[in-house]
Amino acid sequence: MNDVERYVCIHGHFYQPPRENPWLEDVELQDSAYPYHNWNERITAECYEPNTASRILDPDGWIKKIVNNYSKISFNFGPTLLSWMEKHEPEVYRAIVEADRESRENFSGHGSALAQAYNHIIMPLANRRDKYTQVLWGIRDFEHRFGRRPEGMWLPETAVDLETLEIMADLGIRFTILAPYQARRVRRAGSSAWLDVGPGGVDPTVPYLVRLPESGRTISVFFYHADISRAVAFEGLLLNGEHFARRLVGAFDAGRNAPQLVHIATDGETYGHHHRHGDMALAYALHYIESNRLARITNYGEFLEKHPPELEVEIKENTAWSCAHGVERWRSNCGCNSGLHPGWSQAWRSPLRNALNWLRNALAPLFEEQARPLLKDPWAARDEYIEVILDRSPENLERYLGRHAARPLTGEEQVKVLKLLEMQRHAMLMFTSCGWFFDEISGIETVQVLQYAGRAIQLARDLSGHNGLEAEFLEMLSQAKSNIPEHRDGAHIYEKFVKPAMVDLVKVGAHYAISSLFETYEEQSRIFSYTVRREDGISRLAGAAKLALGKARVTSEITREETTVVYGVVNFGLPSINGGVKEYADEESYRRMVEEVTAAFDRVDFPEVIRLLDQYFGGDTFSLKHLFRDKQREILGIILDSTLEEVAADYRRIYERHAPLMRLLKELNIPQPKVLFSAAEFVINASLRRALAEKFPDLEHIRALLEEARSINIPLDGASLGYALKKTLERLGKELRENPLDTGLLEHLEAACSLVHFLPFEVDLWKVQNIYYGLLQSIYPEVRQRAAAGDEGAEAWVGRFSSLGDCLRIRRGR
Known about the structure:
Layout: E1 6-14, H1 39-48, E2 54-57, E3 63-67, E4 74-77, H2 79-88, H3 90-106, E5 113-116, H4 128-146, E6 153-154, H5 162-170, E7 175-178, E8 183-188, E9 195-196, E10 208-211, E11 218-223, H6 226-234, H7 241-249, E12 260-267, H8 278-291, E13 296-297, H9 300-306, E14 311-315, H10 349-371, H11 378-384, H12 386-390, H13 394-404, H14 411-429, H15 434-437, H16 444-464, H17 468-477, H18 490-498, H19 505-515, E15 524-527, E16 530-542, E17 545-556, E18 562-571, E19 577-583, H20 587-602, H21 606-617, H22 629-667, H23 674-692, H24 699-711, H25 718-738, H26 743-754, H27 766-778, H28 780-788, H29 792-808
Parallel strand pairs: 1-4, 1-12, 1-13, 4-5, 5-6, 7-11, 10-14
Antiparallel strand pairs: 2-3, 8-9, 8-14, 10-11, 15-16, 16-17, 17-18, 18-19
Helix pairs in contact: 2-3, 4-5, 4-11, 7-8, 10-14, 10-16, 10-17, 14-16, 16-18, 17-18, 20-21, 22-23, 23-24, 23-25, 25-26, 25-27, 26-29, 28-29
């Protein structure tokens, strides 16, 4: 069989549950993701980024090639994940977008990126209006990022029904991907004879056409190879790239004289996060297939153009790839769960779904009623609101309102329109599928969707002036029982985890006021999705005590709502902070507060300062616990630093005084006293961390510290030490990229890299290797030519560069 008739396509569904605080529009610190700031950051480091520069190794384990996997596979990224990545990981984001451009060159003009229904809701469980908006937002988000129309769209959990396919086809989507057991029956185009699909599913090697009864349109469907996909995800197939490649090409039917497509679909996180170095197995499998001409690597758009469907299919509606019971995993206790908590019930899923459906339906008439006088067509305005989400600049908002406003709007009316549209956005975000997928209603994914509901309720309260929605919502949530006694039910979880997270403009002002004790703000500052403009500010110091008073304008960059707050906060050198924040009333009372509080502080009458703050702010008092999580941790770190410095000094004195005794005890095989051992462990690890973080690490000093640790059996904190050296290497690597001909920098980087091979812990060289590989492609050939022509400086550079390549285990070729 000619290799052109054999095609392979690997699809990765890259997605993370949205983790943004709905009031701050950013992801706060997540301790469970340590040593990373949050899970998006961690999975980017373990999966999304490695796939932009994956290694292909030679038989000796040296790097012979670095490739961008995304340019050779089919992939989709969740829009909410890409939004986070664009802001926080721009280099990775650019590499993904660039890979789609490269894939068009590889695959006859067809890009490999697919769109996705916007925020991963289970489409068959949504109403038609939400289905339409989800598909449209997914398309518009895709166009904004990739600069072209999407050919295909990924359905969250591959959950499908005909109404969703109708909407996709109506909006220009040509194909989607489903599991093989989501096909009911098939027939040859033009035939009236249907054949039922057996329990093993439909033949996945060809595309199929679905005829849509409502509109008469059609849409193509690819059914992925289930056994190989399962082996990749759960059966260790990624342990060996060659085995992976052979398993793919082994699925071809040698007896069939027609084009065949072997394709698989898995969560993209399989390639690096779920399976370490899975990206390398993927890269090698593709390389192995191509270099041995076992098949042609393709994507769905290219294959569909070359080989249009000859078969029609009827789908099984209301089915998904991760539920054996249709789509019940997202609305009932169907039995599908993680398997980590035997005996736990998921009966909470149904009342959660019912409560959110009720809330969505209750918000719709409020939206229509209040938006109708302001917008020409409220629901059309919601559909187009994605344009504002993607670009919240004042100029773009003005253009949007120019198209959709029923008349010129006042500033107050613009705020109202934005609040209405944000209410609708959160009313869709609260249906993100992850809220039902796992075992327990108090899990972070379910709390996240409850926070979206809380934000929608808060906006509805602002717009309507009453809070009846929340009471009824909580009554319904109380039927959703937790498996953990302390969490009781959904209503208790809402009170415990959602209400404390709620933010308003005064709370943003409180964060600003407390933070101002510990850092200097510019006249205008950005705090997550808010802008704070200082209109007046007074600071006083008295020994360790510090006072901050002021007035500031707080503005939401999302809704344009704003207010002026006054604040007064004091710290007496202890973790406790006293202070208050409230909305500005008038200049006279503000000035009186400033004069009286500063006078009391200046005469060091601290009890009077506290009394006055209580008097002026009443119940509107705040403390460190009201800070947003990242700043709270940062300020507590500042407070702790002095304490830790004292402890470190004490430990160092203990260790230095008693180190000879500890060595003697070790020689005599006498157990070390715990207090001495703890002091030594702390001091040696701290000293190593400092040494590894130096601009130019002192190799001899580091070796001496390592020998000291070995001699008395001190365990090393490999994670933090490896991280410190990783950052040092990356810093030197970036300097070299900016000054590639600096032989001195090459020498320092080579020396630092040489440490890695005798350290008793792992060091991540990934970014340094990428920098080196880039220089190998761009700078090295020219300098090597100069060296060959007798240029002594070039000869020295090539020698150093070659030594660094050996340290990094990268082949340079000839």
